[in-house]
Amino acid sequence: MIILHYTLGFFPTRTGGLVEYASDLISEEKKMGNKVYSLFPGRINILKKTYIKKTDDPTIFELFNSLPLPIFNGIGNSDDFCKAVDEKIYIEFLKSLNLDIIHVHTLMGIHKEFFKAANFLKIPIVYTSHDYFGISPTPTFFKEKSYDNCEDKNEVWSILSANAMSVCKLRFFQLSIYSSIRKIFSKTGNFKNKVSTSFNERISIGNYKRIINYYRDIFSMITFFHFNSNLAKQVFFNNLGNIIKKYAVLSISNCQVKKRDIRFYNSKEKRIRIAYIGPDKREKGFFEFLKLIVKNKNRNFEFKTFGYTPKRKIKDLEQNGKYNISGIKDVYNKIDVLIVPSLWKETFGFIVPEALSFGKIVFVSENVGSKDIIGNDFFVFKNIEELSDKLNSFNGENDINYNLITMKEHANEINELYKKLLR
To answer: What is the DSSP string of 3-41?
Structure first.
């Protein structure tokens, strides 16, 4: 089988669950004997129009002069995100690869003409729901609250894009020096603040109809929707309705998820070490975790965090900072219980299967898509008050049912999905 993946990019320029998943899936599909290509939105060349060029790796292609990448804060002037290119660019590229299937992991950066070309050539397109970009101007559909089920789309897109950067500033993230600059700022903990709060370009309500329809047109050209959770499926159906014709819900995986010899923690032995792993962001539930500490500071608990650069000391909390993925085992050796308190409707959340595969107890917010793999509602909570009650009643004897799938097993599922489409 000959497969093309469209992804946001590759480590170290791009990071995150989407990038990790796409890279791991590509690797597994190659092991299975498939011929696998990749396309990603790359650099800007102001001297030329949009074009595609092979990288040093002959299986990876770079899309020059893609549409802007609104990684932070939504979309400003929507006309900049709907610009047309010559469809022949994509027709010739796709023809040259002689593809059987296209697998799309994001709509960021890619033109509508890519999907028109694939439809013209009758190449099936599979789309995986890593985030909500396309039905939302942001990946999370979240600001101070979730906006995924609002009727007035113009108003929602305006609210979510109230602090959108100009296209000129967004192009910064496509510079070849971006990954190096990000590393410098991330060490000081100031990078996200500098790029997300320096610009305040409020957008008036009512100018998003064109781009909303632009992405609806793209979604209508997708052959098959792969939802990575029932939660993601619900949000997409609420926003796309009958545009979605064929779909499946399949939990995803990555190479960190392995079926280890799991020994779950017995809380009768010692103080319970409770952790949060992730960025110090509101939508990820970081501040909900701090509320949990305040409510339980006199209990037999120790609270720890990992995954961000601490900005200040927080009482009764051990902040361990960032860690390398190579040190993930050491992180899990230091904790007993993981809390995943997301406020945004997280399409999946790799941290859940990773923690389970290391034998940790995991309590997840009802907003976390990977709750699908946890077979006991006791470990799913609506709010911090309910979580606090569950933690205090937990004695290590609750039935822990879960359904872990390795990356190899998942890649086999995806390949079977491809084959069914081709048949």
So the answer is: EEEE-S--TTTS-SHHHHHHHHHHHHHHHTT-EEEEEEE
Beta strands in 284-414 (DSSP E): 301-306, 318-319, 337-340, 361-365, 380-381
**Coil, strand, or helix at residue 196?**
helix
One DSSP character per residue, 132-191 reads -BTTBSSSS-BSSSB-TT-S-HHHHHHHHTTTPPPHHHHGGGGSTTHHHHHHHHHHHT-H
Instruction: Provide CB contacts within 8 A for 150, sequence distance 6+.
Output: 156
For residue 265, pLDDT beyond 80: no
Q: What is the pTM of this model?
A: 0.91
Residues 30-84 pLDDT 10s: 999 999 999 999 998 888 999 999 999 999 999 999 999 998 789 988 889 999 9
Give me the helices (H) in 256-406, please.
286-295, 328-333, 351-357, 384-393
In angstroms, rounded to a whole number, what is the distance separating the alpha carbons of residues 58 and 370? Answer: 35
Q: What token pair was written down for 155?
A: 């108003």
Any idea which of 3-7, 176-180, 348-352 has the lowest mean pLDDT? 176-180
Are 354 and 257 contacting, i.e. CB atoms less than 8 angstroms apart? yes
Omega into 68 within 30° of 0, i.e. cis? no
Helix 87-97 vs helix 112-120: crossing angle, to nearest 10: 50
pLDDT of amino acid 239 = 96
CB count within 10 Å of CB 180 equals 11
CA-wise closest residue to 212 among 117, 107, 86: 107
Beta bridge partners of 40: 62
The first and second tokens of residue 219, run together, are 């979604």
Q: Would you tell me how many other CB atoms lie within 10 Å of the CB of residue 86?
A: 13
Cα separation, 387 vs 145, in Å, equals 20
Contacts of 324 (CB under 8 A, 6+ apart): none
Residue with tokens 């006309």: 79
pLDDT at 263 over 90: no
* Each residue's pLDDT tens digit, 318-366: 999 999 888 888 999 999 999 999 999 999 999 999 999 998 999 999 9
CB 90 within 8 A of CB 53: no
